[in-house]
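Reviewers asked in the last cycle whether our approach scales beyond single polypeptides. To address this, we selected a multi-component target totalling 310 residues and predicted its structure end to end. The input consisted of the following lines:
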Amino acid sequence: MPYSILLDCDPGLDDALALLLAHGDPNIELVGVTTVGGNVKLENTTRNALQLREYLKFPDVPVSAGAAGPLVREARDAAHVHGSGGLGSVVLPDAQLAVTGQHAADFIIETLKKTPGKIHLVATGPLTNIAIALEREPAIARWAASFTIMGGSYTRGNATVAAEFNIWADPEAAKIVFDADWRVTMIGLDLTLQAHANGAVIDRLKQLGSLADELIVPLATFYFNPTMPDWDGQAVHDVCAVAYVARPDLFLAQPARVDIETRGEFTAGMTVVDFDTSTPNSLVATKLDVDGFWAYVESVYARVAAEHSA
Ligand code: RIB
Ligand code: CA
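The resulting structure, written as structure tokens, was:
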């Protein structure tokens, strides 16, 4: 029975790879894509989502644009990682189809309301759209079958020493999201840094033909930096969040209390994770079956690649 997924994202190199997985896995029905400003400006994350939709041929999946920036803070991006356009060196044909015209938050509310308990909500960018949707309709916390994010860390950050980018980009939104009446599955850096597209993975992906040449390999190697000591390849952070929904068997996760630091001068955006709590609000992923993960992801990508070349 397919997993219905609504993906809120900021494409983004790894968001694009996550979209490819959500589209390509026959056990996943991608029911909608919403975009948020994050890695790059909203106009670029939205353009990228629209172009990927047509390039990967899922034209019937609605795309709705959302928040251009955080709830209260100045927008901060990751263009230095993803390139100014957001997809690194990848250039896709202009999209012919447009966004829905509905705000992402309202699309999320309307979509979850139609089929309560059926749709798995996944967020792989800053949590601004999710927070706005919760503020407008708190019941989405009950209507979502599950809620999984790529974000946070219970050790070190990547945007700062303390904070992971998606949380750091909008800590106030993250606080609203983690304080809502649901259990957040947090796929944080501690998990995603186990999912490196290393040399062996890239060599296998290169066998997948034009889809690999035009999209997968350039996305997965854009900030490939073999000069760094013991460089093990780019982590496909966001792919892990989608993979968790379809293949939770590949992950170990523990209940925890996650609080978001919003006031710290040096720690704003930090996810403060307490695994010893008696009042968990989250499930925090800790371990990945790395070989199983790549076998799964590569099998789905190979399936899409075969159709793409046909
Ligand atoms: O910290 C990694 C996260 O930040 C990923 O979602 C990546 O796309 C960036 O948004
Ligand atoms: Ca992202």
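Residues 290-309 form the longest helix (20 residues). We regard this as preliminary and will revisit it once experimental data from Aim 1 are available.
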